[in-house]
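Hi all, a correction to my earlier message: I attached the wrong file for DUF7580 domain-containing protein. Here's the right sequence:
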Amino acid sequence: MCENAREARRQGHTLALELAADVLNLRQEAIKSQQSFKSTMTLRDFLAAAAQDRDARMTPKQQSLLALDVATAVLQLHHTSWCGIPLNNQTIKFLVEGNGWVAAGAPFVEQAIDPALLPVQPLDPSLSTQATKATVLELAILMLEILQHKSIEVWAAENQQGSTVTFGERLQAASRWLELSDDKLLPHHLNAVEACLVQCVKRNLSWNFEFQKLFCENVVHPLQQLLSPPRPL
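and the right structure:
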């Protein structure tokens, strides 16, 4: 895997990887050139740019797809070395072509992994209560940002919400934002965000099997339902 990554970097190619259970596999048929991509853009900058140019905004389907991509990435990567901190609008990035086109359908995160810091034993998927709360809070915020095309910082400024720096401030802002979104988001969107925020007020929380099961049922599944083809009558 490392040799493939080095060779791809040397040739200016991108690699497509597939995560199955705890195994990360290289999809050979999906190796492709990235020569047309000249830079990267954070989700926060993308949302700010889209606010100025309505033509640059995602369609409702693209928004739901991106929200689902982020939710599943959190589920798969959070307790690995590939993602050491909660995802947010500055850690999620997109490739940008020379003509300014943003590949919003292919989000990614960058993570420099120091081999000296890797644990000798497999990583324990169980996380502390506060770390788990921080993860699901940031996911709730990300979904609100993606689905409403603005960052929480912009929303807070527009609604006199105040600072959004600390955990408590961000939780308060996200909860209020959700309350005011009944007429702006679909029920499945609202349910997915609410399922995350509910976890933030629990006394004890662990990233164990039961938590991940509920995460799939209450966050991932509602987003998947929006993208599933309707059943014939």
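Sorry for the mix-up. The mean pLDDT is 84.
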